[in-house]
Write a structure and sequence with these properties.
By secondary structure, the chain is mainly alpha-helical. 56% of the residues lie in helices and 0% in strands. The protein has a domain at 31-94. It is built from 4 helices and no strands. The chain is globular.
Length: 94
């Protein structure tokens, strides 16, 4: 174990539970600036209303988890706009 890893391991709170399961894959997502701004605003709004800290990653993980649990079949989507339309229809938004 490297000296830095040892120092980090010593300073971590052993009682603290991680915010997410330990087995995760890091990915890069490219978003339009307005979508990044939306996620940031949503994060702030959640914090102001509930005090809970939701960063962009937590919001995106929750969205993917909800889509997965929905069993919604979007495999016929022809492009991103088509997928967006199917998702909007599924949640009742025009």
């Amino acid at each position: 174990m490297s000296p830095r890893a040892k120092a980090t391991a010593k300073t971590k709170d052993p009682q603290r539970k991680p915010d997410y399961p330990s087995l995760q894959n890091k990915i890069t997502v490219v978003l339009a600036p307005e979508n990044v701004a939306f996620l940031d605003r949503l994060s702030i709004d959640i914090r102001m209303k509930t005090g809970a800290n939701f960063d962009r990653s937590k919001i995106l993980r929750a969205l993917v988890t909800a889509l997965k649990a929905s069993k919604l079949d979007v495999t016929g989507a022809k492009d991103e706009d088509d997928l967006t339309g199917q998702l909007k229809e599924a949640i009742g938004k025009p």
